[in-house]
Amino acid sequence: MDDFIAYLDTSQVRPGKLDELKAAMAELAAFVDLNEPRIIAYRVYFSADGTTMSVLHFHPDLASLEFHLEVAGPKFPPIAPLIRMQTIEIFGRPTEELVARLQEKAKLLGTGSVIVRDCHAGFARLPGP
What pLDDT, on the 0 to 100 scale, is given for residue 123? Predict the structure, then answer.
């Protein structure tokens, strides 16, 4: 298998914070777009009733996700009052160090857990060099 990594976090939106959170996440997505050229996709989704937010991103390898945590990490604390993170799911094979960093992020943003799902079969069509 390749080093492709998919990341999905799910958070509860704090009451009355939806508009502020949407603005903050639009700003974060624009920042990631400008500063993380290797990330394949970064998407923010809200449930129809606005009570849940999911952030999904795809990385060609572990280094890209690690870089994301370094570059975008300082942008996470201001979002903490707006959400309560429930889960971070990693699809791929992260290192123990990366899992520990994600656990720190989950604690910063809520009480969520980190779930790792190892790839059994499949493929990823990644952009060429």
Answer: 83
Which helix (H) or strand (E) element contains residue 56? strand 52-59
Closest residue by Cα to residue 35 from 88, 74, 62, 2: 74
Confidence check: pLDDT of 11 > 50? yes
Rounded to two decimals, the pTM is 0.91
Buried (b) or exposed (e) across 82-121, using 16+ Cβ within 10 A?
bbebbebbbbbbbeeebeebbeebbeebbebebeeeeeee
Alpha-carbon separation of residue 114 from 24, 64, 87, 122 (angstroms): 23, 18, 6, 23
CA separation for the pair 27, 106 (Å, rounded): 20
Distance CA 16, CA 73 (A): 24
Sequence-ordered list of residues with C-beta below 8 angstroms from that of 17, at least 6 positions apart, any chain:
81, 82, 83
Which stretches within the chain are classed as H helix?
A: 18-35, 62-72, 96-109
